[in-house]
Specification:
single chain, alpha/beta, 2,3-Dihydroxybiphenyl 1,2-Dioxygenase, domain 1, 2 domains, four-stranded mixed β-sheet, 8 strands, 16% helix, 38% strand
C-alpha cells in the first residue's frame, strides 16, 4: 500500500497581469509567508513558494497563457481550498475590510459549524471553516 505522509503543497495558477495582486492577496490578506520567489525566464513565469505557520503549503505560478475556469465553481478538478480558522465571523470581517469578495456565513448542516466561501484575485473559490 502507498503510505502518504501528508499533503506537500497545492499549486495555484494566476495570469502574469494578476501575479502581483495574487501575491499580495496570499501574503497580506491571508498571511502566508514567502519562502522563495523564482522567475523562470524560459517560461516567462514566476513561481512563488508560500508557507503557513512555517509549513510549505502553496505554489503560486504566473503564466502568460492563463485560461479561465471552464465553469464556476464546479469545474472538474480542484473545487476549492479550505482553511481552518478559530472564528469565522472575525475572519469574515477581516476579509470585508480588505475588499475581498465573500459570500455570507453559512452553517454546516452536519456539524453545526460556521463556514464561508470567498475568492482570491483570480476568482479561485476558497473556504474558511471554523474549528
Amino acid at each position: 500500500m502507498l503510505k502518504l505522509e501528508s499533503i506537500h503543497h497545492i499549486a495555484i495558477l494566476t495570469s502574469t497581469e494578476l501575479y502581483e495582486e495574487s501575491k499580495r492577496f496570499y501574503t497580506e490578506v491571508l498571511g502566508f509567508t514567502i519562502e522563495a520567489e523564482i522567475f523562470r525566464k524560459e517560461r516567462n513565469s514566476y513561481k512563488l513558494d508560500l508557507a503557513l505557520n512555517g509549513l510549505y503549503q502553496i505554489e503560486l505560478f504566473s503564466f502568460p497563457d492563463y485560461r479561465e475556469r471552464s465553469s464556476f465553481p464546479e469545474a472538474k478538478g480542484l473545487r476549492h481550498l479550505a482553511f481552518a480558522v478559530k472564528d469565522v465571523a472575525t475572519a469574515y470581517e477581516w476579509l470585508l475590510s480588505k475588499s475581498v469578495k465573500t459570500e455570507e456565513i453559512r452553517i454546516d448542516e452536519h456539524t453545526g459549524k460556521p463556514f464561508l466561501f470567498f475568492y482570491d484575485s483570480n476568482g479561485q473559490p476558497l473556504e474558511l471553516y471554523q474549528i
